[in-house]
Amino acid sequence: MNEDKIKGQWKQLAGKLKEEGVLDEAGLDALDAEARAETEEAVRFADQSPDPDPAELTTHVLAD
Length: 64
Fold this sequence. Notes:
mainly alpha
């Protein structure tokens, strides 16, 4: 997914949440920080994980 599209979707969601009174700017900032931290942790986990065994390449493949 292209980064500009993601940013646009985030801005649209943020605007809707503010408009509906669900979150204010501080709440949106906290949500953004939490999402970024979770994403960074997932990337760190993936980077530190060993590569899969090449023999497992076709495991759980349902189609040719």
